Amino acid sequence: MTTIIERLAEFAHDADLTEAPAVVSSEAKRILLDSIGCALASTGDDAAGRAVSYAEYLGGTSGPATVLGTGVATSVPAAAFANAELINALDQDAVLPPGHVAPYVVPGALATAEAQRVPGRVLLTAIAVAHEMSFRIGQATDYLRDITDGVVTIPKVIGYSSTLFGAAAAVGVVKGLDEDGLATALGIMGATMPTNTQRAWMMHAPSTTIKYQLAGGMALTAVTAANLAELGHTGDVQMLDDREFGFPRFIGTQRWEPAPITDELGVTWRFPQFQAFKPYPHCRVMHGLFDALREIVADNGLRPDEIESIDAWGESFVQQPVWVNEDIRNPRDAQFSMTHGLAMAAHDLAPGRDWQTDAAVHDPSVLSLMRRSHFHTHPDFAAALAADPSARTTKLEIRARGRVFEGARQYPKGVPSADPETYMTDEQLTAKFRHNADGVISDAAAEELAAAVFDLENVGDVATILALARPRD
After folding, report:
1. Strand partners, 400
2. 16 DSSP 8-state letter
């Protein structure tokens, strides 16, 4: 009997994007461009700098793989580690259920593709396969926004480790592993997967600077699994079929409904309709509120010192220590503090790395407004989410100039939804990339890089794209 892992390996091996809907290739390109831009914007971040230093320690400084936005060339495992951290550092990377996916699944495939100088179409396929696989496995397990008896209930064990099956498959696709090799890589990945530690991160504030899970470590384990398979190690291909002793047990999920993993696998691509992009370098839970707040501020010319108070209503599960924290020690704390985020959004700073400089994070005006801001659970949030998984019902009240300014959003910018205005177009995504790349690589290199990514299937050597992601002279 064919196991789930063997089915996934067959899918990864046989995937042909020329036979898939155009949106599959389109979203894979958009994910890659956005990921590179997020990494470039993170090069000045202290925590990301630690990752680059560790990559140099891990793989030296004369290898075949580029650390994005730096002059460092190192080994494939080391570049995967550093680039994962860079992509995730400012928390403005693309999101897809089960949550963050791109920082874990793109870096290993990207570094391997550069080192092996493969055509762009191979990397494109690898990225699409990884996201489809990650989304499907995520559908089988506990989810951050599961609803029980009409209430959004956070599982006691939660995280993004399940994305690493897709990450290992992506590396295997780039390396050209056959079906057996891919199945072996997935089996090894399942047995070496990091634990899901996100709930501890939520509950222990101020939180760790490695965030919900160490992105670099995640990417590194995927590179390891694929390479060990290529070198001849064997893997457990029954890992996803064994509810009692396999992956569902040791990863900590209470819900295991594996049917979505293989249902119409290879026939129907499901990830594109749920793929979202983040305009703001901040936890996604606040983005609809930021959209409304920035619109009110801009339309009315409100200054932060004029604002008496901000009251916001939104996601019902975020009354947890990491989100209500106001002990802002560093940009990591700022990324998740709801009230600090509201205060930052009220200031005239373009979203991007400028939100997370030390000066901005600790700006007395921002900290003062943070203390005048309040977050509440929206009473209709769970019902709206149950009716539409893309819905993020929010409401906002700003008191200033003797009146109350009101705003609301059903969907944040960046998500595909019933409202076409929330979709982030190629032009908008490219503008985000340009802003992130500004000052790191030359304007000419940024334009050439973006054009190459959008034409990825015709790029003869991925290394030519990565050469454009090195610092400006």
Report:
1. 307, 403
2. -
